[in-house]
Amino acid sequence: MKKFLSFVTAIFILTLTLPAIPAAVCGKFGNSSEATQKIKTDTNETSKTENTTASKGTYKVLDISTGEVLEVDKLDYIIGAVCAEMPATFEPEALKAQAVAAHTYAERQALKEKTSPTPELCGADFSNDTTKYQGYFTLNQTKQYYGDNFELYYSKISDAVKDVCNYIVTYNEEPIVSAFHSMSSGKTESAENAWGSPVDYLVSVDSSFDTTAPKYFEETAFSPDILKEKLNAAFPNIQLGDDFTKWLEISEISEAGTVLSVKAGNLELSGDDLRTALSLRSASFEISFTASEIIFTTKGYGHGVGMSQYGANSMALQGKSWQDIINHYYRNCQITVVP
Cα–Cα distance between 118 and 262 in angstroms, integer? Predict the structure, then answer.
């Protein structure tokens, strides 16, 4: 349960990682214009909306480099989150689905902080620490990231966000844990298998589109010395024999392809534990050996739970709407208008 809650607190989208910033001391509040310049930072059918009015209000974001809590307009925040979390080259309907997921995440986190504040956030809804909260780009960061393509890409994402900025995804009238990842193994993984605790709407669904995504298969090779060093650093109590081909053996795999259990020397580890220790792209992997190397062949990228971004883009290319995408990846949920 503890492991699950840590993932719920921070939904990692693995498309982009920004450098960690030192911890802050709580400071003063800044206004939205300051936020634009300073912040440095992861099943009801609805008809298409023509409403381009953003959900009212602001989010409070702790800038951990200065300790300031800055107020950011909700529309600007959602646009910045999509810029940070999904390639701008993706189809508009995929970008809209990402915007709804990002908005849902922000609303859930803001509600959590109202009822159970995190002292380190100093009254903010979340911080710009991307190891704990979803990614967000300021306008200046977006300009730097897109370069010469800024006007084209920013306009494309802004238009997509404005079309859906009043929607979130709910379950039992509460914002969901809107987990998302880059690409699955071909099926998304359940929260229960990935994080140890079931979530009714985060179940395994077909995402076979992902198998054609770039870098779906990736090989990572280690020499025995390097692998032993990494395993010893991550698991101090591990005992490895002389034959490196017997160090690791997969014990259990889920229907979605995630390694649930692997025997590592004298220890039994989860696939995700090993993935973290070795910085693998996913916990869906196979292990093979040569005379001088241990090779991990991974499928997909990310934790595999919730919406696959490449899957969402493939659905959009097939003519599916953002509502179709949301309803496919978040089962038995509602698309809800927020005031």
Answer: 35
Nearest to 43 by CA among 336, 332, 339: 332
Q: How far apart are CA 269 and CA 255, in angstroms?
A: 18
Task: Determine the residue type at 172.
Answer: N
Taking the C-alpha atoms of 318, 333, 310 and 47 in order, what is their torsion angle to the nearest 10 degrees?
A: 40
Contact, 76 vs 32, CB < 8 A? yes
Residues in the chain: 339
User: CB of 176 within 8 A of CB of 169?
Assistant: yes
Mean pLDDT of the chain: 87
Per-residue pLDDT of 235-265, as tens digits, reads 999 999 999 999 999 999 999 999 999 999 9
How many of the other CB atoms lie within 10 Å of CB of 339?
A: 6
Instruction: Please tell me the distance from the alpha carbon of residue 290 to that of residue 310, in angstroms, as a whole number.
Output: 32
d(CA 101, CA 311): 14
Q: Which one-letter DSSP state was computed for residue 197?
A: S
Looking up tokens 């995804």 gives 169
The structure tokens listed for 36 are: 């634009």
The per-residue pLDDT for range 144-174, each reduced to its tens digit, is 999 999 999 999 999 999 999 999 999 999 9
**pLDDT of 25:** 52
Other beta carbons less than 10 A from residue 312's beta carbon: 30
CB 178 within 8 A of CB 288: no
Helix (H) or strand (E) holding 85: helix 74-85
Q: Read off the pLDDT band of 27 (50, 70, 90).
A: low
Cβ contact 202:329 at 8 Å = no
* Cα dihedral across residues 29, 21, 181, 201: positive or negative: negative
C-alpha to C-alpha distances, 300 to 62, 105, 218, nearest whole angstrom: 32, 23, 8
Phi and psi for 177 in degrees, rounded to 5? -80, 95
Cα dist. 12→18, 34, 180, 232, 300 in Å?
12, 26, 7, 26, 15
Beta-strand relationship, 307-308 and 180-181: parallel
Q: What is the DSSP letter of 62?
A: E
Counting residues of the chain whose pLDDT is more than 90, the rounded percentage is: 77
